Here is the input.
Amino acid sequence: MKKLIIAIDGPAGAGKSTVARLVAERLGYTYIDTGAMYRAVTWDTVRRGIAVDDAEKVAAVARAINLQLTTVTGKTLVKVDDTDITDAIRTPEINRLVAEVSQNGGVREAMVHLQRQLAGLGGVVMDGRDIGTHVLPNADIKIFLTASIAERAHRRWLELTDKGFNVDLAELQEEIACRDKADCERAIAPLIQAADAVLVDTTYLTVAQAVETILQLCEEKSGVL
Ligand code: CDP
Here is the structure.
């Protein structure tokens, strides 16, 4: 049976990574978290003491990065030069800096090149901001996953509080609004729903319901289940 390419795009906190990983698990596909790639470049930039607005140097970091992504049950492990940075890329500091790094044209070029290689011949679920519009415009299934900003901020608050960070819900909502704006208004590959993407609003959906909705679409489209 043909192995599909499934693209899931949407704003921060819509549940993309959780939902995309579970869809991939159910189909026996590979899950590729492109946000983790931009986060890893951001982490490597900070580690090297380079300012995120130093475009040339940040692009050089992206071109040289030795990045490994592996999905084990329940989570994606991210390594740079064999250092496990799975948790280090999800701190409030990286959340704040990543939108600027991902606006860098050189960074995007390097990451998109890697992402197209990773998608290979199919059997992948890839999530991000520009997958259906730019990275994999010929994807078989395109989903635009979203939720209200209040719900997305609340989910991020739960995630960070759970990890022991002391964060303020109102500040988090403000930060997500800022990142949405930066992602939607940037010049290169902005966050936008592809014309042929299906909108899935998860504000009132559980994770399981969102996963079922997407699997149903895959089944309707190509009898994959
Ligand atoms: O988990 P969350 O939704 O907060 O974000 P993420 O998917 O980990 O992505 C982090 C940031 O990377 C986004 O805010 C974008 O600025 C950038 N990104 C991007 O520009 N293009 C992608 N394909 C994926 C992420």
Summary: The two ends are 10 Å apart (CA to CA). Residues 12-13, 16-17, 34-35, 38-39, 98-99, 102, 128-131, 179, 183 surround cytidine-5'-diphosphate (CB under 6 Å). Residues 65 and 80 are 7 Å apart (CA to CA). Residues 5-211 form a domain with the Rossmann fold fold (CATH 3.40.50.300).
